[in-house]
Every structure is written in structure tokens, then in C-alpha cells.
Amino acid sequence: MSRKRTENDTESGSGTATPVDRFGFLKQEHASKARTTTTSSSTDQDREERKVRKWRKMIGVGGSDWKHYVRRKPNIVKRRIRKGIPDCLRGLVWQLISGSRDLLLMNPGVYEQLVIYETSASELDIIRDISRTFPSHVFFQKRHGPGQRSLYNVLKAYSVYDRDVGYVQGMGFIAGLLLLYMSEEDAFWLLVALLKGAVHAPMEGLYHAGLPLVQQYLFQLESLVKELIPKLGEHFTQEMINPSMYASQWFITVFSYSFPFPLALRIWDVFLSEGVKIVFKVGLALLKYCQDELVKLPFEKLIHALKTFPEDAMNPDTLLPLAYPIKVSKRLEELKVDYEKTIAKPVQP
């Protein structure tokens, strides 16, 4: 499914003209300027065209050269992904770097079977939540329209495919984001690749009962804030702020729920390539960038500020270069061991 739309696209239930940004979000429903676009100069367009040509050469026709190129020049691939995948190639590249393309090819007909012939205990929950997923995007706006139907199909299929996980509300934003860049079947297998761990560690624990992986990530994040941003960590302790109050959605939806779309896309480029550590890096970079203001705020204002970051902090070209150098891999492993020891301790009577 092609998601590309122009500034002049019009699509609404009433048939009246509705201006949308280049990603398909309704302009008038966004107070923030972060999703709006300005007219590109010819220099910007030339630069983007050169970038697309480099990427096309790197991936080959339909991704035929991708694995060979990654083996030969992994550092170049990593650098280019961090600079941002061209939007016109994003859907294909996401499938290649996540391992979902291989899953699709190995399981012909499985998605159709799940959608058409199986029933799910989560169907009513999915229907209830559908309209809450990217409600200001033209693809998902129309009730029972093609976007909502596709989203329902993907979530229903996954809830049947993995009945232990079933369906959890945050999954809608991930599936919705994927559907803006690929077909239903492709989006389904990418969801499988993420949750089952085709390339990186499985993420299904984000959605199991009790959200065990979310609890682990929040424990790790709290420790990293205290270690890497001690002044802010101390202020959080004084004001009794813990990561569950502001960061749960960062992990459950990988920033697709509340972050400006251009920033979320750039994070997802790296997330699919490098794994969940980019979520920690971005979160830490964001807190550090805003530290001077956050340490001045009392509890109520702090909670608000941690959910409404300033526009300049949400600029991908500002935030991501601050996030990439942060070293977290080794410490995350150590903190995972610490967390496992903590939850294994018997409860004191």
C-alpha cells in the first residue's frame, strides 16, 4: 500500500478539502509545527535524489543486493541508516533490516489463513481501539475505511498467531506505523519479527501480562538517569518521579505514540537496525537536553513537562546526534542481571 500523499491531498468523510502534511496527517489538528513541512529548495531536492540513488544501488532491485552489501560494508550501512532512510524506500528497507522479508517468504499463505479462517478472543478489544490509532491520519480516519480494516486484520492475525500475547493496546500504534509504509502481510510479518526476535532480542515481553519487559526497561532507565544525568536523577528522587510516569509509552510504542512523526521515523530506522538500545539513548539524550529546565520544576509541572517536550528538543537533527554517542550496551546487560536478582528475591513477610 502506498502511503505517499502530497500537500494538496484531500480526503475526509464529508468530501471537503482537508490539507495534510507530507506524511498524511491533517494539518489543522496539529498545534506543533514539528510535522509540517516547508518548501524544499532545489539544493535539498538534489541532495535527496543523490541519497536515494546511493540507497538504490546499495539494496539492489527489490533488496537483492542488501545482504551482500551489509556483509561487505556494515559501517557504511550503519552510518547511512543513522542519517535517515529515504522515505520512498523506508518500507522495503525496514523489512530487510528487521528480517521480516525472510519470514514472509518462508510462510506463504499463513497470513491469509489467520485473517480469513481463524477467530480471535481479542476481536472486540481491537475494534474498540482502532479509532484511537493515529486518528488524525487520513489513512486511519474513516470509520471502517481501508486503513482501519487493514489495522484490524493485522492485529487480529497477530492475536491468533501468538495467543499468549494476544492483543494489547500499544500494539496498534506499532502496527499502524508499519501500515503507512507497507502492505498488511508485510506489516504482520514485521510485527512477528519484532516480537519474536528475528534479529534482535524478542519484544513480546512488552505485551505479556504484567508487562514484564516494560518493568525491566524502566528499572534500567531509572538507573541510567541516576548514573548519566545525576543532577536530574536526584531531582526526580526528591520529587518522587519514576520512569513509569513518563517513559512507559516510549518502550511500548517505540516513540510512535507521542513523538513528532519525522522524529519517530528516524528513531525507527535505527531501532530496526540496532535494537532497543536506541530507545534508551534517545530518552537519555532528551532528558539531558532539557535538564536545566526540568530540575527547576515541582512535581505537577514536571509530570507535564515530561510529556510535552519543547519543539527544538524534538528536532531529529538536534536530538539524534546527541543520542548516538551515549554508551549503554554493556550497562544495560549489567542492569538486566541486577533486575533479575531483584525480582527473584523472596518477598519479606
Give the SSE order as H and E letters.
Answer: HHHHHHHHHHHHHHHHHHHH
Helix content: 55-70%
What's the Cα radius of gyration? 21 Å
How large is the count of helical segments?
A: 20
Low-confidence stretches: 1-14, 29-39
Overall, the morphology is globular
Query: What kind of assembly state do the chains in view correspond to?
Result: single chain
Q: Can you walk me through this structure?
A:
- By secondary structure, the protein is mainly α.
- 58% of the residues lie in helices and 0% in strands.
- The chain has 20 helices and no strands.
- The protein is globular.
- Mean pLDDT is 89; it is low at 1-14 and 29-39.
Please summarize what this structure is:
The protein has helices spanning about 40-60, 65-70, 75-85, 90-100, 100-105, 110-115, 125-130, 140, 145-160, 170-180, 185-195, 210-230, 230-240, 250, 260-275, 275-290, 290-295, 300-305, 315-325, 330-345.
Secondary structure: elements and pairs:
Elements: H1 42-59, H2 66-72, H3 74-83, H4 90-98, H5 100-106, H6 110-117, H7 123-130, H8 138-141, H9 146-161, H10 171-179, H11 184-196, H12 212-228, H13 230-238, H14 248-252, H15 261-274, H16 277-289, H17 291-294, H18 299-305, H19 316-323, H20 329-344
Helix pairs in contact: 2-3, 3-15, 5-11, 7-9, 9-10, 9-11, 10-11, 12-13, 12-16, 12-20, 15-16, 16-19
List its traits.
349 residues; mainly alpha; 58% helix; globular; disordered N terminus
